[in-house]
Amino acid sequence: MAEKKESSELPTTAPVVEKQTTKDSGSFIAEKHVTDSDADSVIENSEGVTEHELATLRHVRDKIPWASFSVAAVEFAERWTYYGTANLFANYIRAPLPPGSTTGAVPRANRANGIAGALGLGQQKSFAIRTFNSFFLYVTPFLGAIIADTKWGRYKTICVFTVVILLGHIILVASATPSVIATPNTSLGLLVFAILVMAIGAGSIKSNIAPLIAEQYQGKLRKETLKSGEEVIVSPSITIQSIYLYFYMAVNFGSAGAISAPFLARNHGFWAAFLVPTLIFATVPIILWWGRNHYIKTPPRGSIILETFRVIGVCMSAVWSYNPITMVRNMRSSTFWDPAKPSFHAGREMPPKITWDEQFVGEVQRTISACKVFLFFPVFWLCYSQIDGNLTTVAAGMKLNGTPNDLVLNLNPISIIIIVPIFERVLYPFLRRMGINFSPIKRISAGFFVAGLSMVYAAVLQHYIYITSPCDNKRPSECQDANKNPNPSHISVWVVAGPYILVGISEIFANITAIEYAYTKAPKRMKSVVTAFSQLQTAIANALNFALVDVNVEEKFQWLFASFAITSCTVAVIFYFTFQELDRAEVQLNQIGTGERDGFKGEERRDDI
């Protein structure tokens, strides 16, 4: 990935005309009227690139710095340890101890269709605890984001909370030892405590890893001559897009690394399955220490959250109306942000509450615009949550032939690992060569639609499992023969691969683009907070899942999946038509807040924080 720039082409366009299509990074197309003087004007914060060059030269990505891969290694280990434990929670909580087992392991004679288990609390309690785990994990990013942006900086925040995660894993291993499993209430209490500790740690580093990995790249929009003599535009936007595609692939390598966990639990018990991720995560402090003098670190800027709310308050005060229709109309006005700008008060006495400059108002506006995009994501994460839990139960009612039912969870990261290079090297460059504008908004819309298709597949599959199960109680996962052995549907467990692969494709379209959007649209001082806000949508989805506990039972899976399918496809259309205009302002949004501020050039420095 650090090789000579990849030729992600944009076709050479015709000479500048009065009405011209401006292209940047294959990320958007915006129509604008261009005069001769406009064509010669230099793009702000670029290295001398003009509007005409931006529109007519082919765009390529830059080299990816090695430090980015070092940061990705941290998330690789974190995801291995997360999925190496969370993927086992469904069986650990739902299913009882197999006969004769003290660790949750399945006796060798019953491993063909046997399922590891421990606490035997059933599907609904298992779903509730797993949903709480995911909910809390995606609430805590705000803790790490605020600490990083205001006090410690991203690097130190990641280091501190890495220790917290390691402590949580040690508690988790203790909860699954045979002597503790023998007293289920103690085991459950330690499990929940471990979930809390690990969620605080993992959530707090999640909001900082993604910005830290991208800010290792410091390139600007520039023109370069290749060995062939061709002049090209080296595009930071394409480079950031590629960084996050490979970052997400590394994350899913870690997720797929947990493929051993179901076998460890089935063959050796849950304590052994939880111990392996703990040992892997113990390598993370070593990686962070090794790279401490090499990372580009954005120093904390002090609390700007209060200042942000003051900007919003000034603008809201200016448009306030008791008529809600008028209020909404005023808030949607193009002049909404003007009262907070110092230039708005030129020639008059400056209100004492305005202590910021013009650029900061632009940063707040940009942050709000980015955050509005993320508000649609709970629907996407509701679909994703089904592969994280309920589809494991679906698999338990299918013919396993020696395959642990929770092994199928790994089909999702494996599919992403395979598909990401195809998208980055083949699909996206092909679309750019063809002049097709597959913008961030279009990519996210496609992600919602494909997530909906995955739920269509799941609903149809569940229907056929119902009618082929030997039991008529609509709970195929609990079906047993006269000898109390599992008696599943004759449908092979591998048929359930469809939803996992489709959700993987939807993640590449929607989730990777959301990570990219959070980084490129957030001001440098607020990148962790905006990233945390994007991750909060997963917590909101899990809160909605809490409200759906009564329908998260196996006999209602078919209609649950169908409802999510209809909702996600509908939201895909609404999302596109709501935000399609944002693509037209992509260059301006990406340039706000990238200049020099507060005495730090580019706001970066290389030192220990």
From TrEMBL:
Single GO cellular component term: plasma membrane
Membrane topology: Multi-pass membrane protein
Keywords: Membrane, Transmembrane, Transmembrane helix, Transport
Stretch list, region Disordered: 1-29
Residue ranges that the Swiss-Prot or TrEMBL entry lists as coiled coil: none
InterPro entries: MFS_trans_sf, POT_fam
Single annotated GO MF: dipeptide transmembrane transporter activity
Transmembrane regions: 127-148, 160-181, 187-205, 243-264, 270-291, 407-427, 448-467, 491-517, 529-548, 560-579
Localization in the cell: Membrane
Top-level lineage group: Eukaryota
Pfam family of the protein (one): PTR2
Protein family: Belongs to the major facilitator superfamily. Proton-dependent oligopeptide transporter (POT/PTR) (TC 2.A.17) family.
PANTHER family: OLIGOPEPTIDE TRANSPORTER-RELATED
Name this protein carries in UniProt: Peptide/h+ symporter protein
Organism: Favolaschia claudopus
